[in-house]
Write a structure and sequence with these properties.
Largest sheet of chain B: 6 strands, mixed
Number of helices of chain B: 0
Order of helices and strands of chain B: EEEEEEEEEEE
Shape of chain A: globular
Largest interface: A-B, 25 and 23 residues
Oligomer: heterodimer
Order of helices and strands of chain A: EEEEEEEEEEE
Number of strands of chain B: 11
Strand content of chain A: over 45%
Radius of gyration of chain A: 13 Å
Largest sheet of chain A: 7 strands, mixed
Distance between the termini of chain B: 36 Å
Distance between the termini of chain A: 37 Å
Number of helices of chain A: 0
Helix content of chain A: under 10%
Shape of chain B: globular
């Protein structure tokens, strides 16, 4: 089945630094990828939709200058958390839809970000 | 009103019993519905998808959809301790240039051995 790879799985950084998270579709081309964030005991909240070759579409309340998304190829999208603060500590999950496989989303394994 | 609502639980069932998980949604034009299972600290994995009214069975899992009442449910037969997880209901929104998947808050299922 379709596989989405996300890296790193866990990162700890100091406040004020930037962190880049990569999301790759391994066996299909994804023109659209989605970035979610999940705080403990809460559901997945869509942050932005990443479109290959164009600007990402951000959900209301998500700062596009803080969460930089780049979708430079059909198999790679990156999320950069700039000037991270402790309140950015969360579980970040990317997902993509296999256009050959229909509607379901396939999720990466997630990145646990801890900002100290 | 939240777009996708689920009882947070925990729902506790004994091993071997049927677990029934429910979800309601607010957008009448939603047409695609999904159930994901999420273990603690892991990302969600797709369990079932359902697109038309009625029941859809896959192994021990049955998804039920009633568009008129705007609810979708998931039944797990012969529940096993390994089924203990958070079950997320997701609804696809059609609109604009992209289709968004909106998640409920999830129901925590605990299967007691």
């Amino acid at each position: 089945g379709a596989v989405v790879s996300q890296h790193p799985s866990r990162v700890i950084c100091k406040s004020g630094t930037s962190v880049k998270i990569e999301c790759r579709s391994l066996d299909f081309q994804a023109t659209t990828m989605f970035w979610y964030r999940q705080f403990p005991k809460q559901s997945l909240m869509l942050m932005a939709t990443s479109n290959e070759g164009s600007k990402a579409t951000y959900e209301q309340g998500v700062e596009k200058d803080k969460f930089l998304i780049n979708h430079a190829s059909l198999t790679l999208s990156t999320l950069t958390v700039t000037s991270a603060h402790p309140e950015d500590s969360s579980f970040y999950i990317c997902s993509a839809r296999d256009p050959q496989g229909g509607s379901p989303l396939h999720f990466g394994n997630g990145t646990r970000l801890t900002v100290t | 009103q939240k777009e996708v609502e689920q009882n947070s639980g925990p729902l506790s069932v004994p091993e071997g019993a049927i677990a029934s998980l429910n979800c309601t949604y607010s957008d009448r034009v939603s047409q695609s519905f999904f159930w994901y299972r999420q273990y603690s600290g892991k990302s969600p994995e797709l369990i079932m998808s359902i697109y038309s009214n009625g029941d859809k069975e896959d192994g021990r899992f049955t998804a039920q959809l009633n568009k008129a009442s705007q609810y979708v449910s998931l039944l797990i037969r012969d529940s096993q301790p390994s089924d203990s997880a958070t079950y997320l209901c997701a609804v696809r929104h059609y609109g604009g240039a992209t289709n968004k998947l909106i998640f409920g808050t999830g129901t925590l299922l605990a299967v007691q051995p």
